[in-house]
Amino acid sequence: MCSRFSRLSRSVVLTVICALASFAVAQSAPPSIHKSPTPPALTPLTLAIGGRLQTKPTDTRTFGGKNYIYQWPGTYFRAAFAGSSVYLRILQGDQILHIVVDDSPAALLTKPVPGVYEIEGLANTHHTITVFVATESQAAPNTFGGLAIPKNETALPAPPRDRQIEFIGDSHTVGYGNLSPTHACTDAQVWSDTDNTQAFGPLTARHYIADYQINAISGRGVVRNYNGGKADTLPQAYPYVLFDKKQIYADASWHPQVIVVALGTNDFSTPLNAGERWKTKADLHADVEVTYLHFLQQLRAKNPAALLIVWATDMEQGEIESEAKKVVDEMKQHGDQHIAFLPIDHLGFTACNSHPSLADEQTISRKLIDVIESNQVWQTP
Q1: Which residues are catalytic?
Q2: Euclidean distance between CA atoms 332 and 340, whole angstroms
Q3: Which residue stretches of 35-186 are H helix?
Q4: For residue 317, what pLDDT is reported?
């Protein structure tokens, strides 16, 4: 009897353990996302938004009655709710969206078809959701239609953040091709291998739990674009919400305590072409120095209390670093002591077309954090 009871007990215990294991697997299953052709009655969520955008009214009141149009990289939409599912409305645009729930990846959408999508399978509790735009969109803006929850769930205010950082630059700030393990990339590969969420800017902002803007365009310079390309330089495009330059950017709530600038790579990385307005490198240097200084002075006028960090690499035999340092030194000579120059040397540049890799992104972020800490902008959380 005792022997049979022991075997029976072990059997029961094993059955219970297996059942509990199956229950745990079911409970920890990741959330799923699918297109929802007929969503239920919804309540819109209030969004905390990172990045510059235009808003346009729409008849879709269930998502808040607004469409959000954006073109600068690094845009994101954050909200909070209590419930087990959430809906997002996606409109036109070629983009890769990273959807993060409670700081964990929940879904990845690559060039999603316009429509309403449901994320379900969440534990029925409080959640934060963030939709990050990972890609660059120079050719045309993208449009997002908002976030919403079923009527039986509860909308919550997005957790407030009082720290703000702005990152201004070119492809190095965009995160151009940073996922690629090789230099050689087609245009399509550059697009798919660009992940701004893993660029040094968002990495640094996440360290401080700060909101951020990425105001950067690949290939643009201070006065000269890559290989003399005909398009607005970064300082020319910077004042505007979209690249069509129809609306000046103005947001009374945006007061970054730190502004990080990295420009000049595209001015100097290719030889001058016949027909460009600079006859010599000395002419180009002089133009960059005057224009870069004016741009930084404009940033200072709008952000009198911000720490300005200007960083540069040792590319082009140190030419880019040398020019950036000259401009920072001149800012200091004009009385601005709340500005720092950060040289970042010996990066690997092993990603697409010799751009910073994910390891380089980490290095740049760590060095920026060191400067922010040494200037006592914030204490590390």
Answers
A1: 171
A2: 9
A3: 171-174
A4: 93
